[in-house]
Amino acid sequence: DIQMTQSPSSLSASVGDRVTITCRASQSIVMSLNWYQQKPGRAPKLLISGASSLQSGVPASFSGTGSGTDFTLTISSLQPEDFATYYCQQSYIAPYSFGLGTKLEIK
Amino acid sequence: EVQLLESGGGLIQPGGSLRLSCAASGFIFNNYAMTWVRQAPGKGLEWVSATSRSGDRTYYADSVKGRFTISRDNSKNTLFLKMNSLRAEDTALYYCTRGVGAVGAPGYFHGMDVWGQGTAVTVSS
Lengths: 107, 125
Known about the structure:
By secondary structure, chain A is an all-beta fold.
């Protein structure tokens, strides 16, 4: 099974900051990497699929890059509504494992 | 409006069984793979199971393989998760999700774009 290692596990930042979250797969998943955002008490929301394809309605401040085993999620300028927990997920082959999450908090 | 509505959760004793249901509406159900994802209290997301559009192919996390069974009734736009031999570590909020693409073939599945609000399962004596 493919293991997903996400870092950091938590991150403090300010409104307007640029932040990057990384995700590493234990083997190549080509570009089958998805990013989700979850706010407290809410269901997760798909932000990016296929490593870099932004879902409809997701602000352009979010971007994803990477291929093979190493991937990044970047938020170019943090907005108050971006403070949440972010998860990566590989969808290359089942079981479609998630990373442990990155909690993005306000500094 | 695209919607997924889970039901069937509750308090169950260890070793017991439960069947979760997910009623889909607002989209053509048999055009989509479907999955279950769970989240233990205060913990991260854990992918549990997936089924193909027709239901002929199913996939499971190692932690539930042999105990859980995913199925679907495309005539009723409903997804199910039958859970047997429940353990304390199965306690979680269970989300029904709509898949993007086809499960099974490497590289053809692109995540889950619609999520229900979840149904809570508590396994405790």
